[in-house]
Specification:
169 residues, 5 helices, binds MU-OXO-diiron, Ferritin
């Protein structure tokens, strides 16, 4: 059973996950337009991951007998300075999402809502992985610097990423 406050906060998180998907889809479009198909692939897989996160929250709210309420999605940026700029923005955004998940866990604990706390632990772990991936790619982009060959090598590696649907809890 979800409190009204918890339902509202989960609905807000659902909106943030869909915005994340929208943001990464925009980065994918920009990458593809710039000729970096590997980056385009990586961000499109990220888009799919974010939609899966959104659906996990959707299903949870629904399964608890509450109403999913969809809100307007903000327009994401469409122009970026470089691949480095996109990953800096990606990491910053994921840090924002991590804080949001942590706030949700705090709320679940304060309400003694053990079920939602357990549900949210999957997201806590997922955020460690997401920030880790972003940090790793960011480091390599910084190493490559202005070297076009280095960038193309990273682009080739990012082409290999495939979407794996998250496992159920
Ligand atoms: Fe669903 Fe990237 O956080």
């Amino acid at each position: 059973m979800l409190s009204e406050k918890m339902t509202d906060t989960l609905n807000n998180q659902l909106n943030k996950e869909i915005y994340s998907a929208y943001l990464y889809m925009s980065m994918s479009a920009y990458s593809s337009y710039s000729g970096l198909k590997g980056f385009a692939n990586w961000f499109m897989v990220q888009y799919q991951e974010e939609m899966a996160h959104a659906m996990k929250i959707y299903d949870y709210i629904d399964s608890q007998g509450q109403q999913v309420k969809l809100m307007a999605i903000d327009q994401p940026p469409t122009e970026f300075e470089s691949s480095l700029d996109m990953f800096e923005k990606t990491l910053k955004h994921e840090q924002f999402v991590t804080k949001s998940i942590n706030d949700l866990v705090d709320l679940a604990i304060s309400e003694k809502d053990h079920a939602t706390n357990i549900f949210l632990q999957w997201f806590v772990t997922e955020q460690i992985e997401e920030e880790g991936n972003d940090n790793e790619i960011l480091s390599r982009l910084k190493l490559a610097g202005e070297d076009g060959n280095g960038l193309l090598m990273i682009d080739k590696e990012l082409l290999a990423r495939v979407f794996t649907p998250p496992q159920n809890l």
